[in-house]
Design a protein that fits this description.
The chain is of the alpha/beta class. It is 34% helix and 17% strand. A five-stranded parallel beta sheet has the order 2-1-3-4-5, with helices on both faces.
Length: 158
């Protein structure tokens, strides 16, 4: 069993707004950050190479152009669903953990109070559908070693 100090972290999508902040939060850890072109989560072989020796993966990579996803749903699905499935599959093969970042767009937006994790998702957009598909893929591939975090808004120093 590795100690907290020995745990090897990989932040995927490390050059984006969220990835940059996660890298900063893990600055005193054994952490590596990767982004395109060093990792392509839609390519299983790229993921396999990148995850060698990793204990925990934080997936900050995503197709986040919400409006564009309506006309590019196939590409959004590749990044937001197939990509997380590839990461989860490789994590399962390595006994690694995966933190999958998702979104409140998996809900319909009609609630008048915060959504509980027990509320059934019902996305109204391509972006929400593809992110929900990513959640399902992660749970299917890595049910006991994955964590899904849904966020409603991102902001950072940059």
């Amino acid at each position: 069993m590795t100690t907290a100090e020995e745990t090897r972290w990989l932040v995927v999508g490390a050059n984006g707004m969220l990835g940059t902040e996660v890298m900063s939060a893990l600055v005193n850890r054994n952490v590596q950050g990767l982004d395109l072109p060093d990792i392509d989560i839609t390519d299983p072989m790229s993921v396999q190479r990148a995850l060698a020796g990793v204990d925990v993966v934080v997936n900050c990579a995503a197709y986040t152009a919400v409006d564009d996803a309506e006309t590019n749903e196939r590409i959004a699905f590749l990044v937001n669903a197939v990509g997380p499935a590839n990461l989860a599959r490789q994590c399962a093969e390595r006994d690694a953990k995966l933190v999958q970042i998702s979104t409140d767009y998996v809900f319909d937006g009609a609630a008048e109070q915060p959504y509980s994790e027990m509320v059934p998702p019902s996305p109204k957009s391509a972006y929400g559908r593809t992110k929900l598909a990513g959640e399902w893929a992660v749970r299917a591939e890595l049910p006991h070693a994955s964590y899904i975090l849904r966020t409603a808004w991102l902001y950072g120093a940059a």
